[in-house]
Amino acid sequence: MHSEQPAAARDYFGAYFQTYLSRDIKDLAQVADELSFYKFMRVCGGYATAHADYSSIANKTGITVNKAKQWLSVLVSSGIAILLPAYSSNALKRVAKTPKLYFMDTGLLCYLRGIDDAGVLEKLADSGVFFENYVVSEVYKSYSNSGRLPPLFYYRDANNRKEIDLLIERNGILYPVEIKENARPGAKSSRHFSAIAPAAEAGVSIGMGSVICGSMEIYPLEHNVWAVPHWII
């Protein structure tokens, strides 16, 4: 039975994609070439959890930058993808501004990347990409499914030296979140949380930090930072 599961997943997402393409995308994006759009989505799969580099995506797909922006906008508006905005404030200078790309369904991301076996996924050098995509998409859905606009951002300085995977802003409080696939992340996992400390100068309070990980239990990492199992989200 296990041997049949990869094929079943492949068939499911193949049918899902074809239905999505034939019923929704043709009208929304005026797609005349289905193969080009399929290639576009596969290229986008390679940018999951990374900056949405429109020029690079367009170049790899063989379309214009404007077309890449249009098609990605359709993926977002139809609930297939998420563009996570960068966090900025007057107190935080020289920060990245390009949004990061995530897929709402990590299973679809696996399909686009040609992965249909959990054992293979676990051994990939970039398996953390899929874990991060899963966590961000689940947090995003927890807000959108309750009818709330997800108050989610990420932080990265302009020099790419410090990055925080996820920032959640609620009631004027900013909660930093790091995402680590391993089961026992250490205190260094939250070392970049201090990068947003200057935001307090703009009247933003910094709340408890979290490192969402593969642990089976909650435990403290350092003052006001906790390791949080992914299954809790």
Brief description of this entry?
The chain has 233 residues and is α/β, with parallel strands linked by helices. Helix content is 38%, strand content 19%.
- Total discrete domains: 1
The H-and-E topology, N to C, reads as: HHHHEEHHHEEEEEEE
Overall SS class: alpha/beta
Euclidean distance between termini CA atoms: 30 Å
Mean pLDDT: 86
Helix content: 25-40%
Parts with pLDDT < 50 across at least 5 consecutive residues: none
Q: Main sheet?
A: 7 strands, mixed
**Strands, count:** 9
Give the oligomeric state of the chains in this entry, treating copies of one chain as homo and distinct chains as hetero: single chain
Rg result: 19 Å
Number of helices: 7
Q: How much of the sequence is in beta strands?
A: 15-25%
What overall geometry do the principal axes of the alpha carbons give? globular
Report on this model:
It is a single chain. The protein has 233 residues and is an alpha/beta fold. The chain has one domain (2-232). It is 38% helix and 19% strand. The chain has seven helices and nine strands; from the N terminus they run H-H-H-H-E-E-H-H-H-E-E-E-E-E-E-E. It has helices at residues 5-29, 34-45, 54-61, 65-77, 106-112, 118-123, 127-144; strands at 81-84, 100-103, 152-156, 163-170, 173-179, 205-206, 209-213, 219-222, 225-229. Strands 3, 4, 5, 6, 7, 8 and 9 form a seven-stranded mixed β-sheet that branches. A two-stranded antiparallel sheet has the order 1-2. The two termini are 30 Å apart.
